[in-house]
Amino acid sequence: MTNQVGFAAFAVISEDGKSIYSGSFNDDLRVYATADGSEIRKVKAKQTGVRELAVDREQTIVLTRGYDGTAKGWAARDFRHLFTVPVGKPAVTFSQKEPYRIQVSPDGSLFATAGWDGEGRLFTIPLTVTSARREGQEMKLEWCGGRPPFRLQQRSSLSAGEWENVSEDLTSRRLSIPVTGTRFYRIAGQPTPEPISNP
């Protein structure tokens, strides 16, 4: 398990112990299997180097912070880019605008950063479906962000009718549902208070 160019600046082991996520000064974001060290996937973060990263407990989202003063969210399953937010203020010295730490809240609905500028910032993670795939007679759904508990809702048409709850309260961000005819689905979470430190 190596970084071919540059070197790893930060690495975290997943909650289940099966994966290692690493970020490097050459902008690589990678994930490896702990069983044999094989690389599972890689993407260029485009943040002038990845200084630190964080992964939520369910491995639905990976957050990176870069030397460019941004934080980015990535779908853990395929490293699809989800969002970019500024997390540091422009300053005279480069290190002052650099975010120093990044961390996901225990419930996966928020993330926090701290910077050399002495300020801490809190951000919501938007509820985003990161994977919807059919396996046999089941649909596998996966999402990140949002505030639990969640509800799966459905309707037969996008232009008529109301959304109906078809599940009990869900605390996990993964769900399998049987495929029965044509249905439209969405995941609904709880209202998330807007953090007062969002820029």
Q: What would your notes on this structure say?
A:
The protein has 199 residues and is mainly beta. It has two domains: 8-124, Methylamine Dehydrogenase, Chain H (7 Propeller), CATH 2.130.10.10; 128-190. Helices cover 2% and strands 52% of the residues. It has a four-stranded antiparallel sheet, with no helix packed on it. Strands 5-6-7-8 form a four-stranded antiparallel sheet, with no helix packed on it. Strands 9-10-11 form a three-stranded antiparallel sheet. Mean pLDDT is 85; it is low at 89-96.
Kindly list the characteristics that best describe this protein.
single chain, 199 residues, mainly beta, Methylamine Dehydrogenase, Chain H, 2 domains, four-stranded antiparallel sheet
**Biggest β-sheet: count, sense, barrel?**
4 strands, antiparallel
Overall mean pLDDT: 85
Classify the fold: give the CATH topology of the largest domain: Methylamine Dehydrogenase, Chain H
Strand count: 17
Query: Any low-confidence stretches, pLDDT <50, length ≥5?
Result: 89-96
Work out the count of structural domains. Answer: 2
- Assign the CATH class of the largest domain: Mainly Beta
Q: Can you write the helix and strand succession as a string? A: EEEEEEEEHEEEEEEEEE
Strand content: over 45%
Computed CA radius of gyration, to the nearest angstrom: 18 Å
The chain-level structural class is mainly beta
The order of strands across the largest sheet is 1-2-3-4
Q: What is the assigned CATH homologous superfamily of the largest domain?
A: YVTN repeat-like/Quinoprotein amine dehydrogenase
Helix content: under 10%
How far apart lie the N and C ends? 38 Å
Assign the CATH architecture of the largest domain: 7 Propeller
